[in-house]
Amino acid sequence: MKLVGLFINKARQAALVRDLSSHGVELRPMPSSAAVLHALKRGEAQAVLLEDADTSLIDWLAMLQLRLGGIVPILVVGGDNAVGMVDAMAHGATDYADYVDSVEPLLTRLRARVGRPQQLRRMGLEVGPYALDAAASAVRRDDREISLTAREFALAWVLFSNAGRVVSASSLTARVWGGGTDICKRTLEQHVYRLRRKLSCGATESVVRIQAVYSIGYRLDLLHEQPGWAAPDYGIAATELPLHARGLPQEQPPGYLRHLWPGEL
DNA sequence: GGTCCAAGACCGTCGGATAG
DNA sequence: CTATCCGACGGTCTTGGACC
């Protein structure tokens, strides 16, 4: 069995490479999520191993899930500053295993997942009148399909899944293009511009707005309250915040975001 | 402290180049 | 032809200094 992996903790990475190797599993650590995609594209691995390392894990999962479409198993190994199994699974991990004294729990998970047909864990998002279908890379509004390119859909996914919250430009780049890639800021702006045009195209009124947050990133806002969903309440008026923090949400993710599961699309 | 202004940084948009 | 990337340009916003 061949794996590629992303780790923050290098000592932990070395221990895993050694322990897995003794059980006939080859783990190749990668420098970035972009390198992981490249290796998978060349058929050099059957699964991806990620270290549960706080916000890095969420970025890795978002990027890999969007680009792999659930075809390749993504297993998460518990680590320092872990976000935990529930959050990892909610963000698209195929499975989760702790690695404390023994590599056996991880091996068991690997044997159960690698080489078996994958069930897509999370297939869609519903934000206000918009529904995002990850399998089809499409966005629907009021039964009207908005056709997006792969990059545009990846960008939309990250923004919609963080509706009402500011996503930094660096985080957007990491999630859409993968960490380690050197993407010009103009490229991100160009894709945001195209996405804005497509989301508003044909609609009688614009319901969402991709708001630039000066020198920080972007935030997707829902503009009109409708039955069944509500605008986010940031708690503190933006004008009460210091300049650099205006637009940053102060509370939990908004309630109008709902993940869609197979059969709901 | 409040206001004005200039400089620099940033953003939105258009259009061209390149690769598949 | 389409998707992606980047340069150019004009408009907007932020910041810091000068002045009252």
UniProtKB/TrEMBL annotation:
InterPro entries: OmpR/PhoB-type_DNA-bd (IPR001867), Sig_transdc_resp-reg_C-effctor (IPR016032), WalR-like (IPR039420), WH-like_DNA-bd_sf (IPR036388). The keyword rRNA processing does not apply. The keyword Transcription regulation applies. It comes from the Bacteria. Keywords: Cytoplasm, DNA-binding, Phosphoprotein, Transcription, Transcription regulation, Two-component regulatory system. GO terms for biological process: regulation of DNA-templated transcription. GO terms for cellular component: cytosol; protein-DNA complex. This is OmpR/PhoB-type domain-containing protein. Residues 122-222 bind DNA. Its main location: cytoplasm. It is found in: Cytoplasm. Residues 122-222 form the OmpR/PhoB-type domain. It comes from Roseateles chitinivorans. One of its GO terms (molecular function) is transcription cis-regulatory region binding.
